[in-house]
Design brief:
By secondary structure, the chain is α/β, with parallel strands linked by helices. The chain has 14 helices and 11 strands.
């Protein structure tokens, strides 16, 4: 399969299937595992500008800004309400070593919208564009600034007009790329993602870098979106949680190979052990149990005894608990499962899916 390489500004990404920013999930361990399985680029979980401006390098919080040479390129994603503080937060992400600064205008979570953050900005083009301009001005020119958007607050003509005013004005102000989710903010995670809207965007902005997002739960979905819409790349969100193999599978398809089988039980165990080890490096053993519980639940979707393994992960509190689940359910090898899209939808995810 002849795929054009993805480029964001002056940054060569390469393979056009990347991992999205996922609130509460895409920390350094998850990003590292995605990279080790073929993701060419990942985005850190979204951070608040207010938090970054007030940030102190305490052991409890330092993991938020943790990134490493071996995972580069990596983006820091930012969310906030007030343009000046937003740009100051962006400067903090630059200082922390992120290669791209991504502006979040897509989060549909109610408490975020109530504080005039995330997807709320799609209702106020003037402020959204002020945020983009100030961010682009404060970020060094060699570091790309990108934006994550949904197709609008809702499906009214006013919402559509606002979307295009922000996107066109954003590109004029120096945005290197835009990631667009085919759902509205009002939809949240319900109903289908409207891929046809992405096709319209590429027709209207053929020379701009646009990535698509929404309803990408398998490697085949990623290529179907690129084929149907013409987007320059795709960002996998919920479909990547507990399923880094989606990137391996995508690379195999791109190389003209058959779709690889899902990981076997012992292959899954190896990644679960790797995830704990990476998490321990930045959180310590005492915090890992509670933090990795949600990941274990997601990983369980690939296990042939998913219905029994999932409840076992919900009880994780410590390393002993984690190892206990592995020693009970991940000892004998067996073929794994491709996680179903329905499982991802039912289980939900972080705020950028």
């Amino acid at each position: 399969m002849n795929l054009p390489e993805l480029q964001i500004g002056n940054l060569k990404i390469g393979f056009p299937v990347v991992q999205a920013a996922l609130s509460g999930y895409s920390d350094w361990p998850m990003r590292m595992i995605a990279r080790e399985h073929g993701a060419s680029y990942t985005l850190c979980e979204v951070m608040l500008d207010q938090f970054l401006v007030q940030f102190r390098d305490r052991s409890k919080n330092k993991h938020f800004l943790h990134n490493s040479e071996e995972e580069k390129p990596v983006a820091g994603q930012l969310m906030g309400a007030e343009p000046e503080q937003f740009s100051l937060g962006a400067a903090k992400l630059v200082e922390a070593g992120f290669d791209v600064i991504d502006i979040n205008f897509g989060c549909p979570v109610k408490k975020v919208l109530g504080r005039c953050r995330g997807g709320f900005h799609l209702s106020q083009p003037e402020i959204a564009l002020d945020i983009i301009r100030r961010t682009r001005d404060i970020v060094p020119p060699e570091i790309p600034v990108t934006v994550k958007m949904r197709r609008g607050i809702d499906d009214t003509q006013e919402s559509r007009d606002n979307f295009f005013e922000i996107l066109e004005g954003g590109f004029a102000a120096g945005l290197a790329a835009a990631t667009v989710h085919g759902r509205t903010v009002e939809q949240r995670y319900k109903g289908p993602s409207r891929w046809q809207f992405l096709r319209e965007l590429k027709d209207q902005f053929p020379n701009r870098t646009i990535l698509g997002s929404g309803d990408l739960f398998s490697a085949e979905d990623c290529f179907r979106m690129m084929s149907e819409t013409g987007v320059d790349g795709v960002t996998v969100a919920r479909g990547a949680i507990g399923n880094p193999w989606i990137f391996t599978q995508a690379r195999a398809i791109a190389a003209g190979e058959p779709l690889p089988p899902p990981p076997t039980v012992l292959e899954q165990r190896k990644v679960l052990e790797r995830h704990w080890d990476l998490a321990c490096q930045i959180y310590g053993d005492k915090r890992c149990g509670q933090l990795l519980r949600k990941f274990g639940i997601k990983y369980s979707a690939s296990h042939p005894s998913f219905a029994d393994v999932r409840p076992a992960f919900t009880k994780i509190r410590s390393l002993d608990d984690w190892q206990g689940v592995l020693n009970q359910w991940y000892v004998e090898d067996a073929p794994g499962l491709y996680p179903s899209a329905e499982i991802h939808r039912v289980q939900g995810s972080g705020g950028n899916a």
